[in-house]
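Progress report, Aim 2. The chain analyzed during this reporting quarter is listed below.
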Amino acid sequence: MVQSVELLLDDAADAEIRRQWQLLADAGIPSLAGKKIEANRPHITVAVARQIWPRIDQALEQLTFRPLPVRLGGLLVFGARHPILVRSVVPSEQLLALQRRIFAAVSQCPGIPANVHPDEWTPHITLARRVPTHHLGEAIHAIARDRDFPATVVGIRRWDGDQRREWPVARGR
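Predicted structure tokens for the chain:
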């Protein structure tokens, strides 16, 4: 499994993404609405590694973090064999700078994929994984009418995929 550092959204944006998860589920698309664990929440993954060491958590806790406005944009499809439907997050200089700071803290950990390196990262929120290719049109149609909307990043969490647990490493100050 992997471990990650993720940005959490304000309550209104969280509820909107959950509504989109449900729209997909109602359309018969296997969305994240079906994951019934407490840690399943909309988020923006900013760093991933096979293992993130405890000393990195301490460094992340020292980050100065203030709530950050972001704009949730259009739909994207990642991959072809096992498509992933995502909502883009419009990259701002503030968001990119935060991702670079977090990446710098995590950069010495093992197993970091290339797509989370600064200048390679595509900010997004996952809506559905492994969408059957013959249902992509239906999935997009279920939520494509939704407009871009503003959100605020209100915290940073760590996720440990091996232990299936989360914990906060920074909250807005």
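The helical segments are 11-26, 54-61, 93-106, 136-143. The radius of gyration is 16 Å. These observations will guide the mutagenesis work planned for the next reporting period.
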